[in-house]
Task: inverse folding
């Protein structure tokens, strides 16, 4: 019913920048909360940043002032601008969207397949 396509991961040197995108398509009535999560090898998945439908944002302490989450409602897309990347930011990054789906009661959460971010020191 809803498909998510992530892009923007890759290899970057410490101090560099990357911009992740996650575009949703399908039977979407509206998208409520959008978020980015990450999972490093051997660690649990953790929240990186979230943004509500009203534009209110929340960040993990480890990325505040370096990462910026934003959304384009017309494109059903959420972005994560990552600056001043550190080796400890290396992980698989996943988008997570809370979607109101046509003909479905309630909100459904969808995960992207993940995009790998590698940061070399």
Result:
């Amino acid at each position: 019913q809803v498909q998510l396509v992530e892009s923007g991961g890759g290899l970057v040197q410490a101090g560099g920048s990357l911009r992740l995108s996650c575009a949703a398509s399908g039977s979407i009535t509206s998208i409520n909360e959008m978020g980015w999560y990450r999972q490093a090898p051997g660690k649990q998945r953790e929240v990186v940043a979230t943004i509500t439908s009203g534009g209110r944002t929340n960040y993990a302490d480890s990325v505040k002032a370096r990462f910026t989450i934003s959304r384009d409602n017309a494109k059903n897309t959420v972005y994560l601008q990552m600056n001043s990347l550190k080796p400890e930011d290396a992980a698989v990054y996943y988008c997570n969207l809370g979607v109101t789906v046509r003909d479905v009661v309630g909100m459904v959460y969808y995960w992207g397949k993940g995009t790998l971010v590698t940061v070399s020191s």
Observations:
- The radius of gyration is 14 Å.
- The longest strand covers residues 28-39.
- The chain has no helices and eleven strands.
